[in-house]
Amino acid sequence: MPTVGSERSPQDRGAVNDGQNRTVRPPVRAPAGSYASAMTGSGIVVVEDDDAIGRALVGTLTGQGFTTHWAHDGASALTLADTERPGLVLLDLGLPDLDGIEVCRRLRALDPAVRIVILTARHDEVDVVLGLDAGADDYVTKPFRLAELLARVRAHLRRSETADVGGHLVVGDVDIDTGARRVRVDGAEIDLRAREFDLLVFLARNAGSAVTRERIMTEVWDEHWFGSTKTLDMHISALRRKFGETVGDDDAPSRITTLRGVGYRFELP
Prior knowledge:
About 35% of the residues lie in helices and about 20% in strands. It is an alpha/beta fold. A hairpin with a 4-residue loop joins strand 11 and strand 12.
């Protein structure tokens, strides 16, 4: 799939009819029995003022079976989110009317359960952290590959598969017995220290979402925490070792992805 955001994308075979409307509702809906149709709340709102990028996103998502709506500005995005109640919003931060961070904050207040992935050409880490603090679940920087974005979308929409049922929190092959404080990875029990266990539970409960270092330190260590986050890095390394993963190489495959300058994300399978 092509890269989006670095150059103008071609129109997507008429999948989008903009006209004079500020929102576009492509007629493509999930085919019966498709991956998207099997998901509850799988509708997607794309908030993007760039026509080329918007067409590429809407065309790709509808082609994959997702019911997709397009808002060109923040006000339209909030209206669509209120009327359509999507499962996920792809939110560009550079909007013509409202600041993207403020739109994110309002979307989160409108629907605490909606998944919000911010799309940003702002490479300043401060903007990413502000977006996450405003309620975003994840971020993708432009330019991005459509295949990568689709994988991220699917991961967020299937997060409901991560369930804490009967005291068990299950994410892929990681089974956490929160009551007995026991962890099994691919059926084999691993021994975790108290703080390692608490960190793993927090990451698993937020699986698929980017979480900032500051939020982890506040919620896992101490709400009044202040200072270095070096201890967090040490605990992440310990978890990776006990998972049997390569330590010292952030690019090596891992259940826990390092988001440089931001924090971590526990990956959904």
